[in-house]
Amino acid sequence: MDRKVALGVCFIFGLVMFAQYFSQHPAARSINQAILEYWQIIFAFTLLVGVVSVFKNNVVQIRRGQDRSYRLITLAGLVAMPFLALIWGIKADMPFMWVFENIQAPMQSTVFALLAFFVASASFRGFRARSVPAAILLLSALIILLSRSAVGTFIFPQMTEVADWIRHYPSMSARRAILIGIGLGSLTTSMRVILGIERTWLGGGK
Amino acid sequence: MWELEARFVLSMLWHYVAVTASQASPWFDADKLPTLIAALISIIIVLYTTYHRSSREKFKMREIAGLKAVEEAIGRATEMARPVLYTPGWGGDIQRPTTIASMNFLSHVAGKTAAYDCTLVYPTHDPVLMAVAQEVARESYARAGYPDRFRSENISYVTSSQFGYAAAVDGIISRLKPASIFLLGTFEAESLILAETGNSVGAIQIAGTDSTIQLSFFIVACDYTLIGEELFAASGYLSGDRSILTSVRAQDILKVLIGLLLVIAVIWSTIDALSGNAGSGWWSF
Amino acid sequence: MKNIETRHWTFLGLFVCIGLVMLIDVKLDIPVSAQTRKMFDFIDSLPAGSVLMVSFDHEASSLPEIRPIGLVILRHAFAKGHRLIGVALLAEGTVIGYRLMQKTAAEYGREYGQDYVYLGFKPQYIAAILSMGESIPRTFPQDYLGRPYEQFDLLRDVDNYDDVAAVISVTDGSLTTHWMEYGGARYGVRVLSGMTAAMVTTFDPYVASGQMHSLVAGLRGAAEYERLINREVGGERGMLAQTTAHLYVIALVLLGNLIYFRSRRKRKSA
Fold it and tell me: What SS3 class is residue B206?
């Protein structure tokens, strides 16, 4: 019964949102606006699910004695940030923002910076001219890399034009083909969800 | 000469349909008529392939190396007594079709890990995704006949922050050293970080994403990569689910139609350019 | 030493190369690309007082690359006398965007409420983009500082995207795609973007088809824009490190291929 209700709601709202896309009538626009507002409210409640999950998992692991110190820090952060936000607010220059700007942001930038190192090691390991197409791909990659640096035009004056040609023609045509395929896959999957053929989002099963 | 006549007739017909549609109901935005027509054609094709009997007859799908390797990957994890890690990426939530395709794939992987008694670890960035994944896995374990092997704590919400998620999954990979890693879903910049860390622990990695940028990282760093709509076809391929396989057929039909449209538009615009006409530009809507 | 693998040496090499060049203060001569010039020309050609929406759709992690891009765009817009509405569709971009706007506005003597307003963060970016297409005051009844929307002179005539010359999405991910799909396709708002270099090939097809007007990409794009507005934001300074990193990766790729071909030849002769 629950599934039938959920499927029915999904179908009705899918149909309504599909239909209102093609209308500029004030009634259609106000339906659209209302649904968007409800969507944002529902999203806020889903965050509670996440908080409870993190809390529960970490408490269980702490009781088992696994990675206790790290999990205690996690829970401390989970409690401290809302506390700071509630007491002093989340505007600029408040303690919440100080923690964000001086602890969270640098940590995130550090992990993002790892990407540069991983690109270097992946390039060293992965870029091999094993065949003619691979060699052409490798040459294209080298041209693009040089064109995005400051020395490309010193090595070859038309480097930027060649790189732009590679980006705008062979690379873009392949990308467009993949995008069309992905778009069609998304279209058919969405249709299956709205029509109730696809029920994975309900938690699996037929 | 006949091309000019044909174009004139088609332009008049188009104008008539658009005007009639907008006049028939003030509710309808005539500018969106081409989009509506395209959408209706797509819907009809999907419905036809899904429900028409002859369309549901057996047809052959080409082999996809990454999908053939799924069994091997899970078997490897079982032999090495190491877990299987499955990550849907940071970029998507349950409303994205890519995530739904990933859930279908998860269902298949979960069934296999249940049968082989192999641990499945699924860290996620979205609480709703966590709840859905838990239900999908629970049901897969039950369908495989091993409901008692399901562990909900292995499917957990980590954080919604992108690099917090990347750091957490990296930590899980470094500590647990999974033998197989599935990276299927919507990924952003964290893709190469995860893939390289997986590579460093010697895991076999099967990846698939809808992001063309991250695809290139996966192709370099992973053993098998599902490109583009192979991810959407994957779950049908593995499970033999008719509804998904018929959707793949619908996609193929739509691709042929798009190809035809492209060819017609190219010829039309070439004739326009050669004859010096401004052209209708009917194909850009 | 036993546990040091080849990849650790590549990491060390990159660290040393970039570490050394960061000690050198050299600015490189960067020619301006057509891509960057297109965005510059658009903002430059708008009549003074035009309303632009700047959306800070990025996280704190990409700040070193995104900040110069955001700065050049804001500086140009304020210098031309345009009026700016700031929003953020990712939570982490909220205070970053606010501080950037506040700091840049102060450089040009621009007043909050008259010349710029920061509306803050709205969750569920698709819903937020669609909602602003219907009504911006309904989406953001208050600004970031909690003051009512109607209070601001700048916002009095701004109800939805029809009253905005363009949306500039400053992003480190693919959120700009949603601006084009929902804001551009549905409501017809012109979309421009400042983005990290890694994302530029994702959006090339959209620029080519006209769905996105123009974009500025990465540190190089910021460096090019710096030249056009004749103000330093760190783009040119960072190009030396970026160039070094690129050359290092090229050297690694060539070395890797050299090793590969040598071992292949040895296997064949064996």
Answer: strand
**Within this chain, do residues C22 and C51 fall inside the same structural domain, yes or no?**
no
Cα gap A101→A97, rounded to integer Å: 6
Q: Are residues C67 and C122 in the same domain?
A: yes
> Per the CB < 8 Å rule, is B162 touching C59?
yes
Task: Please report, as a single letter, which amino acid is at residue A141.
Answer: A
> Are the beta carbons of B127 and A53 separated by less than 8 Å?
yes
Domain of C110? 31-233
How far apart are alpha carbons B123 and B154 in whole angstroms?
A: 8
| Cα–Cα distance for residue pair A190/B39, rounded to 1 Å | 12
What residues contact residue C132 under an 8 Å CB cut-off, 6+ apart? Answer: C87, C139, C140, C160, C161, C183
Q: Do A124 and C28 touch (CB under 8 A)?
A: no
Task: Answer yes or no: do C151 and C73 share one domain.
Answer: yes
Among C29, C33, C201, whose Cβ lies nearest the Cβ of A175? C201
For residue B49, which of C212, A191, A30, C203 has the smallest C-alpha distance? A191
Torsional class of C160: left (φ above 0), alpha (ψ -120 to 50), beta (otherwise): beta
Cβ atoms of B179 and B76 within 8 Å: the answer is yes
Out of 2.60.120, 1.10.490, 3.40.50, 2.60.40, select the CATH number for domain B67-239: 3.40.50
Angle between helices C63-79 and C93-107 (to 10 degrees): 40
Total domains present in chain C: 2
Cα–Cα distance between A162 and C218 in angstroms, integer? Answer: 19
Let me know: does C143 contact C152? Beta carbons within 8 Å: yes
Within this chain, do residues C148 and C266 fall inside the same structural domain, yes or no?
no
Residues of B in contact with C218 (CB under 8 A): none
User: What is this model's ipTM?
Assistant: 0.86
H runs (alpha helix) in B85-180: 97-116, 127-144, 162-176
Per-residue pLDDT of chain C (270 residues; tens, 9 = 90+): 557 788 899 999 999 999 998 888 777 778 888 889 999 999 999 999 999 999 999 988 888 889 999 999 999 999 999 999 999 999 888 889 999 999 999 999 999 999 999 999 998 888 899 999 989 999 999 999 899 999 999 999 999 999 999 999 999 988 999 999 899 988 999 999 999 988 888 888 889 889 999 999 998 899 899 989 987 767 777 888 888 999 999 999 999 999 999 998 888 887
Torsion of CA B148, B151, B152, B153, to 10 degrees: 150
In this structure, chain A runs to a length of 206
Residues of C in contact with A121 (CB under 8 A): 6-7, 10-11
Q: Is B212 on the interface with C (CB under 8 A)?
A: yes
Q: Give the number of beta-carbon pairs within 8 Å between A and B.
A: 178
Nearest to A111 among B29, B98, B167 (CB): B167
Q: Is the domain of C220 the same as that of C260?
A: no
Which residues in B lie closer than 8 A to residue A23 (C-beta atoms)?
Answer: 27-29
Residue with tokens 């809390």: A55
* Domain CATH number, residue C71: 3.40.50
Cβ–Cβ < 8 Å for C20, C239: no
Neighbouring CB atoms inside 10 A of A108's CB total 23
Domain boundaries, chain B: 2-57+246-275, 67-239
Q: How many CA atoms lie within 13 A of B32 on its CB side?
A: 17
C223 and C254 assigned to the same domain: no
Chains touching chain B through at least 3 C-beta pairs below 8 angstroms are A, C
C210/C93 same-domain check: yes
Q: Give counts: helices (H), strands (E), chain C.
A: 11, 6
As given in the structure block, the two tokens for residue A90 are 């989340």
Residue C63 shares a structural domain with residue C197:
yes
